[in-house]
Amino acid sequence: MKVGATEVLNSERDILDEKEYLLFEYQGNNLYFNELNLEELLKQHKTPLFVFSQKILQLQFERIYKAFTSLNSQSLKIAFSVKSNPLTEVAQTFMEKNAYFEVTSIGEVKHINALGGDPSKIIFTNIVKNVSTIEYCVDQGIGLFAIDSWSDMKRIEGVCEALEVSVNILLRVNPGIQLEDTLFSCAGRNSKIGILTPENLTMDSQFKDIFDYCVKSKWLNFQGLHAHLGSQIVNLDQYREGMRKISILITQIEEIGLKVNTLDIGGGFPIYYGEKNVPRIESFSEVIKEVFAGQLSSLDLILESGRYLTAPAGILAFEISVIKERESNLNIACVNGSFYNTIPDVIIADWQFPIKKVKYNLEVPLIKYQIVGSSNDTLDYYKGKDELDGLVLLGKIEEKEYIVFLQAGAYSISFNSTYCMEERPSVYFIHN
């Protein structure tokens, strides 16, 4: 589908033009990704194989920036969530884009440091930060710490006092909005993440206690708020309500004469995994503009993104090892790897990853398949579309053919395991 300049995009699904956006196209019977003949590539490399496109990483970064730069905030910073993909080439690509980095462990801090990253562009957000981790981060000059609890605050302050170094902090707030349409909500009242936003800053609350202590501390420099609501958010009304509570809190803080310099709204921007309506990135920008209105001009705005930046840039290729035909007419295609070791989201979240055959032939019939992983685990299979009885409709598959899963660049590498003592999949990175 070609999108004209005057057309309105309603969902993320609408922009999945595979040739222009995901860099896929068939030339003759052969599938190409980012100008590479996949069959030739896969014959040279062991499968399962992840293939990543640097060009798509760059396009995703530019798309987020374009969507939010129109808000006219005091400054706009895009932070890559390192947990979503630990590949060296991915972090390096975003460094070249002058990105910031959201990290959740000392390992991720050391990863960015080893690549020559600027520590002042690191935002540490994990809910548990032990003393040795804090000491290392303070010594390195980490730019921002997101404080998640009273204990978290006191531990950071204690290290800073001992080292006689002050640090910049954000208070990580939880608006208490349960995101019902995602498995990965961080914003419910009983979530382990963040400090609940108070109805009013003048009332007694955990937030008020932590806030009052922070602004008086010699070692903690209050900069603003951190408000990540969750991952793969598709309900804009719930997102709007969560952000509205953050906006009210900023107003109340400024009414008592204190300045909020930085607002980190996290990420959560969704990728299309087969849902009927996945809001486009521009829709989130419109909500932020609507909710925060005149507040943005005096704020440094930080966006954290992992899945949205990396998912479209990666594909996962398998070889079909075995075709089994049941007496019930069920056709089972066994791939040469386990989904536990490659893209466990198909097991955890039942997400739909678009699938393509590497060799395309119009003359072969379309057949319903159950695609299963190579382990003996009965959960190790790919759940297809409900309208296909949980199966996948593909042109007839032969053993030793290849199939690829699209949109597989986020968390797949991070969650790779050695279940059944299988080797981890190999990775091929396409540089521009």
**Highest-level CATH class of the largest domain:** Alpha Beta
Could you report the average pLDDT, rounded to the nearest whole number? 91
Overall spatial form: elongated
List the uncertain runs: 1-9
User: Percent of residues in helical segments?
Assistant: 25-40%
Tally of distinct domains: 2
Q: Class by helix and strand content?
A: alpha/beta
- Looking at CATH, the homologous superfamily of the largest domain is Alanine racemase
CATH architecture of the largest domain: Alpha-Beta Barrel
Beta-strand percentage range: 15-25%
How would you summarize this macromolecular structure in one to three sentences?
The protein has 432 residues and is an alpha/beta fold. It has helices at residues 38-44, 54-69, 88-95, 106-114, 131-140, 150-163, 206-216, 236-255, 281-292, 307-310, 345-348, 412-415; strands at 24-27, 30-33, 36-37, 49-53, 75-81, 100-103, 122-124, 144-147, 167-174, 184-185, 195-196, 220-226, 230-231, 262-264, 300-305, 314-325, 331-335, 355-357, 366-372, 381-382, 392-395, 402-405, 426-430. Helix 2 crosses helix 3 (88-95), helix 5 crosses helix 6 (150-163) and helix 8 (236-255) packs parallel to helix 9.
Description:
The protein is α/β, with parallel strands linked by helices. It has 2 domains: 12-53 and 311-430, Lyase, Ornithine Decarboxylase, Chain A, domain 1, CATH 2.40.37.10; 54-309, Alanine racemase (TIM Barrel), CATH 3.20.20. Helix content is 28%, strand content 24%. It has 12 helices and 23 strands. It has helices spanning 38-44, 54-69, 88-95, 106-114, 131-140, 150-163, 206-216, 236-255, 281-292, 307-310, 345-348, 412-415; strands at 24-27, 30-33, 36-37, 49-53, 75-81, 100-103, 122-124, 144-147, 167-174, 184-185, 195-196, 220-226, 230-231, 262-264, 300-305, 314-325, 331-335, 355-357, 366-372, 381-382, 392-395, 402-405, 426-430. The strands form 4 sheets. Strands 4, 16, 17, 18, 19, 20, 21, 22 and 23 form a 9-stranded mixed beta sheet that branches. The model is unreliable at 1-9 (pLDDT under 50).
